[in-house]
C-alpha cells in the first residue's frame, strides 16, 4: 500500500489538472512561453514591417447625415406657433415634435400606431403621430398636449383626469387626453360603451380605464363642443 511519502510533494487537484491537460509540467511551461512569444510577435509585427494598423486603415464609422439636397422644408403650425423645419422626408411627425422642437409631451410607446401614446390633434382630428410623416402636414394646425391649456388654466379634460385619477404612471396620459378631447368633438361620448369603443385605440397598461371613463364623462359636462 502506498504511503504518504510516495505522494510527490506539492501534488494536488491543480497539479493533477495540469498533468491531465498538458501531460507534464515542463510541457505547460513550454506552452505558456510559446503563447507569450506569439503575442509579442503579433503586437510588434506591424511596426517592424511598416504595416498600418487596422484603426489607421479603417476610418471610424459616423452616422450618416442627410445632405441639404435630401432635406425638405416644411412649415408647421403647432400650438398656435409657426415653425419652419428642414427635415429628412422620412422623419415622422412624432420625431419632429420630440427631437427637433423638444415638445416631449407626446410619447413614443410602441412606434407602430397600436398604443396611442403619441396621439396629437391635426386640424382638430386625432392621429397617431408615429405613423405620419412630418412632410405630410405642411401648413396644418397641430395641437399637442402642451397646447391644450390656456396659460395657467388647464383644459377641462386635463382637470378631469387629475380629479378622477385617470392615470398611474402617466406615460399614456398625454395621448389619452388628446384622444378624449377629439372624442368629445366627434360626439362619440354618448354612453359608457361608446366611450370605451372610441377610446380603444389608447392603451393604458396600468389599467386606469374606469377612472379615464369617469374623467371623460366629467369633462363632457364642462366642454362646449
Please provide a written account of the structure.
The protein is of the alpha+beta class. The chain contains eight helices and five strands; from the N terminus they run αααββαβββαααα. The chain has helices at residues 13-22, 25-48, 54-57, 93-100, 156-163, 173-185, 192-198, 209-220, and strands at 72-78, 81-87, 119-122, 125-128, 141-143. A five-stranded mixed beta sheet has the order 2-1-5-3-4, sandwiched between helices. Helix 5 packs across helix 8 (209-220). The model has no long low-confidence stretch (mean pLDDT 84).
Structure at a glance:
This protein has helices at residues 13-22, 25-48, 54-57, 93-100, 156-163, 173-185, 192-198, 209-220, and strands at 72-78, 81-87, 119-122, 125-128, 141-143.
List keywords for this structure.
225 residues; alpha+beta; elongated
Tally the beta strands. Answer: 5
Average residue-wise pLDDT: 84
Beta-strand proportion: 5-15%
Strand order of the largest sheet: 2-1-5-3-4
* Helix-residue proportion: 25-40%
Give the SSE layout:
Layout (H helix, E strand, L loop, with lengths): L12 H10 L2 H24 L5 H4 L14 E7 L2 E7 L5 H8 L18 E4 L2 E4 L12 E3 L12 H8 L9 H13 L6 H7 L10 H12 L5
Parallel strand pairs: 1-5
Antiparallel strand pairs: 1-2, 3-4, 3-5
Helix pairs in contact: 5-8
Amino acid at each position: 500500500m502506498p504511503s504518504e511519502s510516495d505522494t510527490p510533494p506539492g501534488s494536488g487537484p491543480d497539479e493533477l489538472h495540469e498533468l491531465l491537460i498538458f501531460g507534464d509540467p515542463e510541457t505547460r511551461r513550454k506552452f505558456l512561453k510559446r503563447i507569450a512569444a506569439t503575442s509579442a510577435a503579433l503586437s510588434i509585427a506591424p511596426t517592424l514591417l511598416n504595416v498600418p494598423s487596422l484603426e489607421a486603415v479603417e476610418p471610424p464609422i459616423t452616422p450618416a447625415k442627410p445632405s441639404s439636397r435630401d432635406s425638405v422644408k416644411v412649415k408647421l403650425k403647432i400650438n398656435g406657433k409657426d415653425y419652419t423645419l428642414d427635415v429628412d422626408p422620412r422623419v415622422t411627425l412624432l420625431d419632429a415634435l420630440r427631437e427637433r422642437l423638444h415638445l416631449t409631451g407626446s410619447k413614443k410607446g410602441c412606434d407602430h400606431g397600436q398604443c396611442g401614446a403619441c396621439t396629437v390633434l391635426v386640424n382638430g382630428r386625432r392621429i397617431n403621430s408615429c405613423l405620419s410623416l412630418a412632410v405630410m402636414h405642411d401648413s396644418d394646425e397641430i395641437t399637442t398636449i402642451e397646447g391644450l391649456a390656456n396659460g395657467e388654466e388647464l383644459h377641462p379634460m386635463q382637470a378631469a383626469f387629475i380629479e378622477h385619477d385617470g392615470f398611474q404612471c402617466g406615460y399614456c396620459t398625454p395621448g389619452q387626453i388628446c384622444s378624449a378631447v377629439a372624442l368629445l368633438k366627434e360626439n362619440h361620448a354618448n354612453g359608457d360603451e361608446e366611450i370605451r369603443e372610441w377610446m380603444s385605440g389608447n392603451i393604458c397598461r396600468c389599467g386606469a380605464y374606469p377612472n379615464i371613463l369617469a374623467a371623460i364623462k366629467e369633462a363632457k359636462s364642462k366642454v362646449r363642443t
